[in-house]
Structure formats: C-alpha cells, structure tokens
Amino acid sequence: MLSILQNRTYRHLFLAQIVALTGTGLATVALGLLAFDLAGERAGLVLGTALTIKMVAYVTVAPIAAASAEQTDRRKMLIGLDLVRMAVAVCLPFVSEVWQVYVLIFVLQSASAGFTPAFQASIPDVLTDEKDYTRALSLSRLAFELESLASPMLAAALLLVVSSGTLFWGTAAGFAGSALLLLTIALPSPAPKAPRPVWERTTRGIRNYLRTPRLRGLLALNWVVSAIGAMVIVNTVVLVRAGMALPESSVALALAAFGGGSMLSAMLLPRLLERLPDRTVMLAGAGLGIAAMAILALAAFAQPLTFARLAIGWAVIGAGYSAVLTPSGRLLARSAHAADRPAVFAAQFTLSHACWLLFYPLSAWLMAAWGGGAAMLALALLAAAGLIAAQRLWPKDSASPVAHSHPDLPPDHPHLQGARPHAHPIIIDDLHPQYPQQTPR
C-alpha cells in the first residue's frame, strides 16, 4: 500500500492531508473547551449548533465551490482555501462571544466544503492506475481513523504545557503546512470544453450524480452509513457513561474499537477489491454494519448491554462502515470525466452530509426518547431500507457497455466511430445527458 508514496505529487498531497487533519483534530478539542469557557453548562448546545452550522455549510456551499473550481486553477484554489482556514483558526483564540464562534465556524466549514471535494477529485487525476487509486483510498481512510485516535492524545499532551486557546495555533499551523506542501507540486486542472452558465455549473454535479444508476445506489449507501454511524458518534458517550456508569476513558476505548474495525477493513480492501466487484463489497459491508447494529439492539432488549459487547459491535460496524466508504471514490472517479470530477465529488460531499444532517439529530432524539436498544433497532431498520434501495438502484452490470443511438448526431461524428447504434460504458456528459436505454444491435 505504501508503494504509492513513491509518486511525489501524491506523497505531497497525502502529507498535506495528514497535517490538515491533525490541525482539524486539535480544533475539535479546542472548540469544545472554548464552548465551555463561553457558555458553561450550555456548552453542549453551543457545540450542537456549531455542528449543525458545519453540516449546513457542507450541504449548501460545496456545489457553489465546485462551480468555481471549473474556472479556477485547482492548485491555486486549494492553497487559497487553506489560507482562509488558517486565518479563521488564528481568529478563534480571540473570540469573546458565542455568535463569533458561529460566524467563524461557518467560514471555516465553507472553506472546507470547497477544499475537500476538489482535493479528492485531484487524486484520480494524479494516480491514473485504478489499483494505485484504490490503495490511496485505503490510505486516506487509515489517515482519517488514525487522526481520530492521535489528535485527542496530542491535544491532551499539549494541554499539559499550554492553554486551550493555543491549540488553535496548532490548527493554523496544520493548514499552513498543507498550503506549503501544495505549493511544491503541480496539479492537473482539466477544464470543460466550453464555458457553462453559472446555474448549470452549480447544479451539474448533483444532476449528473442523480442520473447515474450506480451513484443513486451510492446515495442509498450514504443513508446506510449515516444511520449506523450517527448512532456510534452521537450516542457512545450516553451508552457508556449513563448506561454503564463507566469513566470517560471507556468512551474513548469504545470509539477506538469502532476506529480499529474501520482501519482493519481499510487495510484489507485493496486486495479484496481486486477479486470482487465494488457493488458486492459495498453492499456486504452495509449489510454487516446493519446486522451488527440489529444484534446489539436485540441484546440490549434481552439484558443490560455490557462494554465488551458494545466494543465488539462497534468494531464490526466500523468494518462495515469502512467497506462502504473506502471504495466510493472509485465509483465517483469512474462516473465522471476529468473536467466534471470536482462537481461529482462535490455532489457526493453535499448529498452524504445531507444524510448526516438528518441522522445526527434523529439518533440523539431516539436515544433520549426510547433508550439505546430501541434507538439502535430503529436506526438499523432505517439503514436496512437504504440497503434495499441500494440493491435496486445499482444495477449489477452498471460498468458494462450499453448499446444506444444518437439520432441527434451526424453519421460522421467522431463519437460514433462509424457505428450506429454503438456501445460503451455510460458516463453522464454533454453527449449522454440521460442514462440511455439499451438499444438492440
């Protein structure tokens, strides 16, 4: 897996991701402490509002940023957004009012909503071999999980010698490091063949996404991982602290079990995806996560949930979660031409976070109203509905050539190559604005 780091451009991209993630992790800890300093017992409300603002920024800003990406040098855009994020991080230690936190978080997450899809869309342009790209996706998933484990420990170590506000300077350093690494490389910036109106550029990614059958299946799988993932992220602290009366360290261990399952799955996926289709692996991963959640729910109804059972269940759910998310970049890369990739990755970013925006509050409400067992069962049932939808929306032969006609094109058009009808795998674009029906040959 590490052999792909021999590619200098990708190596610098990956290092930029690592330092930015580390900075973001420090900000997560520092933001919680800042909320407590400003709001005391109302800190949870402040953080909940900040998370909602984050999701709203992700859902609304990403398509607009993708429209800008078509007309902008991608490397300059990424560096500029890193500098915006750095500037926000520098401002955070000086805030004195809660509303200032909300404004800065919106700016910060808006910049991230532009940065992340464009960054992700650049990787398949750099690693054009699909095996290398698959390894990069697994490495990226490992980086995310390691950051979730390492950043809190780094923050705890720093807090022994510095104040909580100083952590934001670490965040700023992370974004500055990312920008400096991006300065050292050249990134491909494929441009559309003809300029498009602003509205078309803004909505093109979501329209192309929803017109592609396998991506409609991916959206249903986003629903699945949001349902099971929200239960883990939102309610682990309640299950462990209130339900089991265990210390804070046990919360960290439970979340580490989820991350460990995800990391193990990510390490195994490159070889697995060489033998099995993406559809099989991703549907199986979703089914695994749902089954683990349902079994935990039934166990909670039978007798009080133990920490050992919860940790094992969280690890299995983490493995299924990663098996769905890690290969998703391959689907997106295959479903768009290079010029359209930022828009399609932005559509995935927007639509997947819309699912999280639904399930974050829903999982919290279910837990508060009905308890752990009922919440897990309800979310498992909602996730199962998403899995059924994914199976129906994502055809088994979605990568196969489709015989179709272009009655609007002249017989000598280069795309037809002298054949009418003709066949090739379908990517939604200007020549194929809708997924065509199979035409008899």
From TrEMBL:
Subcellular location: Cell membrane
UniProt xrefs under InterPro entries: MFS, MFS_trans_sf
Transmembrane stretches, start-end: 12-36, 42-65, 167-187, 217-239, 251-269, 281-301, 307-326, 338-359, 365-390
Classification via Gene3D superfamilies: MFS general substrate transporter like domains
Top-rank taxon: Bacteria
Keyword annotations: Cell membrane, Membrane, Plasmid, Transmembrane, Transmembrane helix
Membrane topology, as annotated: Multi-pass membrane protein
Protein name as catalogued: MFS transporter
Originating organism: Leisingera caerulea
Taxonomy of the source species: Bacteria, Pseudomonadati, Pseudomonadota, Alphaproteobacteria, Rhodobacterales
